[in-house]
Amino acid sequence: MNFKWAYDWMGKDKWRLIVSLVFDIVGVALMTIEPYIFSAIVDDVLMPQAFEKLLPMLGLALAIGVSYMACRYFCNILAEQASQNAVYELKSALFKKLLKQSGDFYSSNRTGDLINKCTGDVEMVNFFLCWCIPRWVESILMLLFALIVFLIISPLYTAVLFAVTPFSLIFATKLSRTVRPAFSEAREQLSRLNTVVQENISGNRVVKAFVRENYELEKFQKENQAYKDINIRANMIWLKYGPIIDSLASIMTVLNLTVGGVMVVLGQITLGQLTLFLGLAWALNEPMLMLGQLINSTQRFLASQDKIRDLYYSSVKVESPDNDECPENVTGHIEFRDVTLSYGSVKVLDGITLDIKPGETVGIMGPTGSGKTSLVSLIPRFIDVTSGSVLLDGVDVRKYKLQSLRKNVGITMQDVFLFSDTVESNVAYGVPDTPMENVIESAVIADADEFVSKMPGGYDTIGGERGTGLSGGQKQRISLARALAKSAPVLILDDTTSAVDMETEQKIQERLRARDKRATTIIIAQRVSSVMTADKIIILEDGKITESGTHAQLMRNKNGYYHKTCVLQHGALEEEMVGEEGA
Questions:
Q1: CATH 1.20.1560.10, domain 2-312, yes or no
Q2: pLDDT confidence band for 577 (50 / 70 / 90)
Q3: N or C: which terminus of the chain has fewer CB atoms within 10 Å of its end residue's CB?
Q4: By 3-state DSSP, what share of the chain in percent is helix, strand and coil, each rounded to 5?
Q5: Tens of pLDDT along 222-269?
Q6: How far, CA to CA in Å, does 93 sit from each of 97, 308, 366?
Q7: Phi/psi class of residue 467: alpha, beta or left (left: φ > 0; alpha: ψ in -120 to 50)?
Q8: What pLDDT score does 157 carry?
């Protein structure tokens, strides 16, 4: 069943593997026939000294050898092509699965583990399909062909030779049972090691800033040592049984020579038949010698395949519906109807009811962990409600196809991510075909055009991974320009200007309000200055809306979160002035 799962990924290229196995079978048959030629040379040419038959027989043996090499060539080529197709399809399927997963999946799975499953484990599938399967078929057929030939010529000789076979099978079975758990443990430890490396590459600035190089080195060495120890244990299992299996194969060779020589002396077989037996010795020794290696590789494959299957069959919590009920022109009317959201037993949002009209700007404030980002994440369905509903233009967002829904939402993330690409490509990421004028216009509104234009390559400047080389404020402004370039009817700004100065923030807000096509805008912020001009401001505390109104209305509540935050940020002496500005 496990083998069939890997085999099915070959798709239309299954025939290549089948044909490669046919070439493999023909090749084994040819190599089994060749010793017959040498046996005939001894009995029919050398012994009676009929040398006129020598050249034709040698020519036939040469032809068989060349044919065997051709069969091996085509077997290897076709098997490689078939396995590479399976690997291509499997990697594509796994990557699609990763793209479908929601945020909670990534928070519960290590990055290094996911990368290892999509690369190293998949390559193990390639090795099994390309190398192990043909070798298994070849080994089994060689044993069968040799057994048949030996039985035809001398059943007694066959019984003596195969006396050691049961012992080989016993040790091979023990190897198979004990080595697989060890390889599974090794793959798991490799994932942990990869995670440490990945985290240190991504967080190298933090490591340097806190002078934790030695600590991280020790952590890496600890995981590296554990990986080494596990591999040693796994290989020790192989070293325990492998030499025994190899020794049994050598014993079979000794028996072949001893028994064969005695039978020739006794006249029970001819010298040519002994030559045949010796020529077929490889058909017995090769499978026996390869048995341990094949079991070793097969168990590695099974351990890797288990990891891949876990990822491939992992559930996707946010699924796209079969039918799309997206309106033709979305206006941006958003409704939260008694929305509750829980992560396990922890309730993040509790009974949220909110109506945001098309084109309205709503500010959301509240303490850290109050559920602000979780609330807006429900709109593009990064997560789904536990109960209640979120509607966009009167239609439950769960009835939109995910692609249609998210095309209508522009969003900037709290954790800004920029790709290792040009500034233009990052801004136009959501609309790759957008004209350059739109890219520049979006950058101007986000107050990014000025510093981008001063870069050595302007909009063609390639940034490092995650925007390395840019300040936090610059990355935030490019992220905002990326959201604006979509011209979506819904715009979500999650702490977008936290890293920019007050003057720059004010410029951005003025340009956003001056846009020709005003989107329904939701602003999550910690600064009062970021939301004070909004049409409506809501305060989230412990997953509930505790305050709602305009800046002036909220300032009247002296004991409210908004008023206290405003006084804290602007100072008690400016409280009255700030209240007047919002009136």
A1: yes
A2: very low
A3: N
A4: 65, 10, 25
A5: 888 988 888 888 778 767 766 776 676 667 767 777 777 777 777 777
A6: 6, 11, 41
A7: left
A8: 73
- Please tell me the number of Cα atoms within 13 Å of 416 on its side-chain side: 25
Give pLDDT, residue 574.
46
Coil vs helix vs strand at 462: strand
Contacts of 403 (CB under 8 A, 6+ apart): 320
Q: Are 475 and 416 in contact (CB under 8 A)?
A: yes
Spatial separation of the C-alpha atoms in residues 62 and 343, rounded to whole Å = 72
In DSSP terms, which residues pair with 346 in a beta bridge?
343
> 412-487 maps to which CATH number?
3.40.50.300
Neighbours of 323 (CB within 10 A): 7
Question: Could you give the CA distance from residue 190 to residue 230 in angstroms, rounded to a whole number?
Answer: 10
Per-residue pLDDT tens digits for 335-392:
999 999 998 788 999 999 999 999 999 999 999 889 999 999 999 999 999 999 999 9
Instruction: Yes or no: say if 538 and 522 are a contact pair by the CB < 8 Å rule.
Output: no
> How is 308-356 classified by DSSP, letter by letter?
HHHHHT---SSPPPSS----SS----EEEEEEEEEETTEEEEEEEEEEE
436 burial (CB, 10 Å; 0-12 / 13-18 / 19+) is exposed
32: confidence class by pLDDT, cuts 50, 70, 90: confident
Q: What are the φ and ψ backbone dihedral angles of 388, each rounded to 5 degrees?
A: 85, -165
Alpha carbon separation from 117 to 121, 224, 282, 295 (Å, rounded): 5, 18, 38, 21
pTM score: 0.72
Domain segments of the chain as ranges: 2-312, 412-487
Contact indicator for 446, 481 with CB cutoff of 8 Å: yes
Residue 303 contacts residue 125 (beta carbons within 8 Å): no
Q: Which residues contact 376 (CB under 8 A, 6 or more apart)?
A: 364, 411, 492, 494, 522, 524
* CA 144 to chain CA centroid, nearest Å: 41
The residues that bridge with 355 in the sheet, in sequence order, are 335
**For residues 167 and 248, what is the distance between their CA atoms, to the nearest angstrom?**
8
Q: Contact at 8 Å (CB) between 543 and 536? A: no
| Separation of CA 89 from chain center | 13
Q: What three-state secondary structure class fits 541?
A: strand
Whether the Cβ atoms of residue 566 and residue 550 lie closer than 8 Å to each other: no
What lies within 8 Å, CB to CB, of 527 at 6+ separation is 497, 498, 505, 569
Handedness of CA 8, 10, 16, 22 (dihedral sign): negative
- Look at strands 520-524 and 346-356 and give their pairing: unpaired
Calculate helix-pair angle for 271-279, 133-153, nearest 10 degrees.
160
Q: What are phi and psi of 168, to 5 degrees?
A: -60, -40
What would the pLDDT profile of 389-399 be if each residue is shown by its tens digit?
Answer: 999 999 999 99
Q: Which two tokens stand for residue 241?
A: 């049984």
